[in-house]
Design goal:
By secondary structure, this protein is mainly alpha-helical. It has a domain of 66 residues. It is 71% helix and 0% strand. It contains 4 helices and no strands. Helix 2 runs antiparallel to helix 3. The radius of gyration is 29 Å and the shape is elongated. The model has no long low-confidence stretch (mean pLDDT 82). Keywords: Membrane, Transmembrane, Transmembrane helix.
């Protein structure tokens, strides 16, 4: 009886209110950044243990860990840049809010339309 109750329930329930999926280029950059950062952290731990143990490998691993830190920093920055570029190219609508002040051009055009009927009447 318990087995039947278990099989009636679903194993996976889709959550409808989750966040939207990231665009593919941004997701690719994020996965790349996570992989590079994880390798960098592993290198840092290996460098630490090699240094504590006094192994000859400590210096080369430390140098590569420092270089990997620079690469990991760039990869995280790449995620941010890719996200901004994707937003600019693929239609994030930027509209002023209702409380925004009208631009100078709009105010100037409104002034011209108000004065135009007066000059025609004269």
């Amino acid at each position: 009886m318990e087995h039947e109750a278990r099989s009636a329930r679903q194993l996976w329930v889709e959550d409808e209110r989750g966040r939207r999926r990231m665009p593919d280029p941004v997701r690719n950059a994020a996965v790349r950044a996570v992989m590079i950062t994880s390798v960098t952290l592993v290198q840092a731990v290996v460098a630490f243990f090699c240094t504590v143990a006094g192994a000859w490998l400590a210096f080369p691993v430390t140098v590569t860990a420092v270089a990997s830190t620079v690469v990991a920093t760039w990869s995280v920055l790449d995620v941010w840049i890719t996200r901004q570029v994707w937003r600019q190219r693929n239609g994030v609508v930027s509209e002023p809010s209702s409380t925004a002040r009208p631009s100078i051009r709009d105010r100037r055009d409104e002034g011209r339309t108000e004065t135009a009927p007066l000059s025609e009447a004269a």
